[in-house]
Amino acid sequence: MQITEEDPEYKRYKRRKEAKEQREILEELVPKETGRDARIDAKKYRAQLRREQEDNIGGTDVIIDEYEGDRIKEMVLKREMERQRRQQQREAEKASKLAAAREKEEQTIAMLKELAKNAGYNVK
Prior knowledge:
- The chain is mostly helical.
- The protein has a domain at 1-32.
- 80% of the residues lie in helices and 0% in strands.
């Protein structure tokens, strides 16, 4: 089988070879950071991108009319009230489970004291 310039495999081979040559030339002209310096630069770059994204999010110019603003405040208030209700419900469940566990423990202790008395031990 003869490979021609129109063959997709040959085209792929050429592209990859040219890209590799370009990377080698670029590496010679501008050496790439390695080791600790590379990690520090990468970290700085990611932090800069994150700051830019936060600035873009915070800096959007959205005009909210009074009705929409009231609706948003109402939604936020509802969400907060629902969160508080769920929190109180969790705390109530936790308290009831704790009370049940204490009651069971007291019953167990009373039973053990009774067994100890019946066995002849001096128990308070």
